[in-house]
């Protein structure tokens, strides 16, 4: 089993130094809710509140986009991804696109302990 890739939304990985920038990486998924789910969700809009069917769909889509982001970064030789962000948009009124993107990098653990306090 391979070691899991480090994924952060920050432009750095605490405790690590970036040794190589491999470039932009992304994971994309386009999903559609089935007609039954759309009908149930449509009924929920009449009464207001959270539409659980769409929440679950988007949560699954984010997970898939993140998995594809990691796979793309691994294919570039990365062991970490920095600056990760998600974006979503509607396509053709029945589909949702979810994009996860970031910068694929190679990181190594810092050899000296890091501290925000400067001595001397």
Percent helix range:
25-40%
Could you give the count of β-strands?
A: 4
CATH third-level topology: Translation Initiation Factor IF3
Give the CATH H-level superfamily. Hypothetical protein apc22750. Chain B
Largest sheet: 4 strands, mixed
Q: How would the global form be characterised?
A: elongated
- Beta-sheet strand percentage? 35-45%
The CATH class label is Alpha Beta
List the domain count as a whole number. 1
Order of helices and strands: EEHHEE
Distance between the termini: 45 Å
- Side by side, the strands of the main sheet go 1-3-4-2
Mean pLDDT: 85
CATH architecture: 2-Layer Sandwich
Briefly say what this structure is.
By secondary structure, this protein is of the alpha+beta class.
Describe this protein's structure.
The chain has one domain: 2-Layer Sandwich (Translation Initiation Factor IF3), CATH 3.30.110.70. It is 31% helix and 38% strand. The mean pLDDT is 85. The radius of gyration is 19 Å and the shape is elongated. β3 and β4 form a beta hairpin. It has a 4-stranded mixed beta sheet with strand order 1-3-4-2. By secondary structure, the chain is α+β, with helices and mostly antiparallel strands.
